[in-house]
Design a protein that fits this description.
It contains 15 helices and 12 strands. By secondary structure, the protein is an alpha/beta fold. The strands form 2 sheets. A 6-stranded mixed beta sheet has the order 5-4-3-2-1-12. Strands 6-7-8-9-10-11 form a 6-stranded mixed beta sheet, with helices on one face. Helix 7 crosses helix 8 (about 185-215) and helix 8 (about 185-215) runs antiparallel to helix 9 (about 220-235). The longest helix is centred in the N-terminal third of the chain and has 37 residues, at about 10-45.
C-alpha cells in the first residue's frame, strides 16, 4: 500500500509500533534470562560481609564474564551487566531499607523501593564494564585483561560521579577475617579499585578454564578453574603481619545506644551516664585519647547560641557541659567525640555541620573537624525544594541540611599524635581519607550506623579495614552500638566490639607503617593499572590479528 493511502496513524506512528514490537520481543527473550542474571548477581553479593563467601562472588562474576563475551553485540553485553548489577546491589545494599524504619515522616515500604531504584542506577557501572570489555573479547587473554581494566575504570567512576557511592567494591570481597587481610594485602600496591580488577582477573581465568574444559582440554581447563580459588584460599588463611606496640594510649567506647533513643531528649542524660562510666580513667593523670562515637554528645558544646538552644544541654550552659566532659575523662585526657554545630541566621538555625570536637581536660575545645563528604538523603536532601513537594525527607531527623567541611584534615594533638579525621560514611572513599601533605599517625572514624541494619555495619568495617591497608595507617572506629574496632595498618582487627554490646577498648594506638605506594599516588595508581590492562588487551588483539 502506498504511504499516502495508509491511515494517518500508521503513517505517523507505524515506525514506533515496529520498534515497540521489537522491544516486546527482546523483553520476552530476556525475561527468564534477565531474572537468572539478576539472581546470579545477587549470589555475587554473598561474598561481602557479614557472610564473606568470596568464592561465590568469583563464581557469579565468572558467569557474567563468560556470558558477556559471547553475546553478539556490545549493547547485549551491557544489558547483561546491568541485570547482574541490579541483583547484586539490591541484595548487597539491603541495609538501606532499614534506615527508612527510623524516619516517621516516610513509610517503611519506601525503603525497599529506594534500594531497588538505587540499584537500577548503580547497575549502570557493571553494564559499562561489560560493554567496554566486549570490544576486547577476541582472545582469552584480551578478554580477561579487557574486562578487568574496564571494571577498574567503571568502579572508580562509581566512586566519583554525583558525589560518588563506592560501597561494596568487588575488592572488599577479597578481604579476609579479622586477623587475616586476605588478598587485600595487595591493596597498598593496587588500591581498592585495582583489587577489584584482580577479582575480575581471577573470575575471568576460571571462566576461561570452564570453556577449555567443555572443549575437551580437561587438564588445562581444570587447572584454570581451580587455580584462582586455590590461590585465594591459600592467601585467605595467612595471618596478618605482627605489629609493634605503639605509644599513644586510648580508651575507645561503644555505649550501645539504641537508634530510636539517640535523638530523644528524654534519653540524653542516660546516654551521657553510660558513656561516662565507660570512659572513667584507670590511671591517674595518664595522657590518653578518649574516643566517643558520632552523635556521642547530644549537648551543644559551642558558645554563642541563643539561650533556648541550650535547653537540653547540661546546666543550660555549654561551658558547664564541657566542664562535665573534662571531669569525665580526667586529668591528661583528650576527648574526641561527634557532635553538631549550628549555622544561625538571627536566632534561627538554617543549617549545621556534623563535627568532631576535641575537648581537653580543662573543658576547652582543643580540636575541631567538620565532615566533608555528606550522606545524600541522610545529612542533606538533594534538590530539597522539589523533593519536599512529593513528601521526601532526610532519613535523619531535622528540617535543615548540613553543609560540608573543607575536606580531609590532620589535627596535631601534641603528645597524642597527629590524627586524621573521617566521620562515618567518609571512610568508604578510597584515596580521599588522608591529607597527603600532612600524613597523620592514625585515622579516627566515629560512626553512627545503627540504622544500617545487620549487614551495613560489618560492610562498613570492612571498608575501614581497606582504608587502613591502602594507607598503611591504623583506624580507630567508635560507633554507637557496633561494630567498633581498632585496626592496624595491615588491616588486622586488634580489638572489636560487636553490635548490641556496651564496651570499652583500652590499649596503645598501633604505629603507622611507612607510606605505601597508594598513599603516595592515591586512586591514580588504580586508574593507571586499569589503563595498562586495557593497553595490554589491545596489544594482544592486534598481534593475534596480525
Amino acid at each position: 500500500m502506498d504511504d499516502a493511502a495508509k491511515p494517518w496513524h500508521d503513517r505517523y506512528f507505524g515506525k514506533y509500533k515496529r520498534k515497540a514490537k521489537l522491544f516486546a520481543r527482546a523483553c520476552w527473550h530476556w525475561g527468564w534470562r534477565g531474572a537468572a542474571l539478576a539472581a546470579i548477581g545477587a549470589v555475587g553479593a554473598l561474598g561481602f560481609q557479614p557472610l564473606g563467601l568470596w568464592p561465590l562472588t568469583l563464581l557469579s562474576l565468572g558467569v557474567l564474564l563468560w556470558i558477556a563475551a559471547r553475546l553478539p553485540h556490545a549493547g547485549w553485553a551491557a544489558l547483561a551487566g546491568w541485570l547482574w548489577g541490579v541483583g547484586h546491589f539490591t541484595l548487597g545494599l539491603n541495609w538501606i531499607a532499614t534506615a527508612f524504619t527510623y524516619q516517621a515522616k516516610m513509610p517503611p515500604w519506601l525503603g525497599g523501593l529506594a534500594v531497588f531504584l538505587l540499584s537500577l542506577y548503580l547497575a549502570i557501572f557493571p553494564a559499562m564494564a561489560m560493554a567496554g570489555g566486549w570490544f576486547l573479547r577476541g582472545r582469552a587473554v584480551s578478554r580477561v585483561l579487557g574486562f578487568a581494566g574496564c571494571w577498574i575504570l567503571a568502579e572508580a567512576l562509581r566512586g566519583f560521579l554525583f558525589t560518588g557511592f563506592p560501597w561494596n567494591p568487588l575488592g572488599a570481597a577479597l578481604l579476609g577475617g579479622d586477623a587475616r587481610p586476605g588478598l587485600a594485602l595487595l591493596a597498598p600496591w593496587l588500591g581498592t579499585y585495582g583489587l577489584s580488577g584482580l577479582a575480575v582477573v581471577m573470575a575471568g581465568v576460571a571462566a576461561e578454564g570452564r570453556m577449555l574444559w567443555f572443549q575437551g582440554e580437561r587438564r588445562a581447563g581444570g587447572a584454570m578453574m581451580a587455580g584462582p580459588f586455590a590461590l585465594g584460599l591459600a592467601v585467605m588463611v595467612l595471618p596478618g603481619p605482627a605489629t609493634p606496640q605503639g605509644h599513644i594510649a586510648y580508651t575507645l567506647i561503644q555505649p550501645n545506644i539504641a537508634q530510636e533513643d539517640l535523638d530523644d531528649p528524654t534519653h540524653f542524660e542516660a546516654q551521657y551516664v553510660a558513656s561516662a562510666k565507660l570512659s572513667a580513667p584507670r590511671v591517674a593523670g595518664q595522657r590518653r585519647l578518649v574516643l566517643w562515637p558520632e552523635s556521642g554528645v547530644p549537648d551543644y558544646v559551642r558558645d554563642g547560641y541563643p539561650a533556648w538552644y541550650y535547653q537540653f544541654t547540661f546546666g543550660g550552659d555549654p561551658w558547664l557541659a564541657r566542664w562535665r566532659l573534662a571531669r569525665t575523662i580526667g586529668e591528661g585526657g583528650l576527648l574526641l567525640t561527634g557532635t553538631v554545630d549550628l549555622d544561625l541566621k538571627g536566632v534561627n538555625a538554617t543549617g549545621g555541620q556534623n563535627v568532631i570536637a576535641g575537648i581537653d581536660d580543662h573543658g576547652r575545645i582543643a580540636a575541631h573537624y567538620a565532615k566533608a563528604h555528606l550522606v545524600p538523603f541522610g545529612e542533606y536532601l538533594p534538590q530539597r525544594q522539589w523533593l519536599k513537594m512529593i513528601g521526601l525527607e532526610r532519613l535523619e531527623p531535622g528540617d535543615f541540611d548540613f553543609r560540608p567541611g573543607p575536606g580531609s584534615q590532620t589535627l596535631d594533638l601534641g603528645v597524642l599524635g597527629k590524627a586524621g579525621m573521617q566521620i562515618c560514611y567518609e571512610i568508604i572513599f578510597p584515596g580521599a581519607v588522608v591529607d597527603r601533605a600532612h600524613r597523620p599517625d592514625y585515622i579516627f572514624n566515629p560512626s553512627n550506623d545503627g540504622w544500617f541494619g545487620s549487614w551495613g555495619p560489618p560492610q562498613h568495617l570492612a571498608q575501614a579495614r581497606l582504608r587502613a591497608i591502602e594507607e598503611g595507617l591504623p583506624v580507630l572506629r567508635s560507633t554507637t552500638n557496633g561494630v567498633s574496632a581498632v585496626v592496624d595498618g595491615h588491616g588486622v582487627v586488634r580489638q572489636r566490639a560487636d553490635r548490641g554490646q556496651a564496651a570499652r577498648l583500652d590499649g596503645m594506638v598501633p604505629p603507622a607503617l611507612a607510606p605505601t605506594l597508594f598513599a603516595r599516588w592515591g586512586n591514580m595508581l588504580s586508574i593507571g593499572i586499569g589503563l595498562v590492562l586495557l593497553m595490554l588487551a589491545t596489544l594482544v588483539l592486534r598481534r593475534a590479528r596480525g
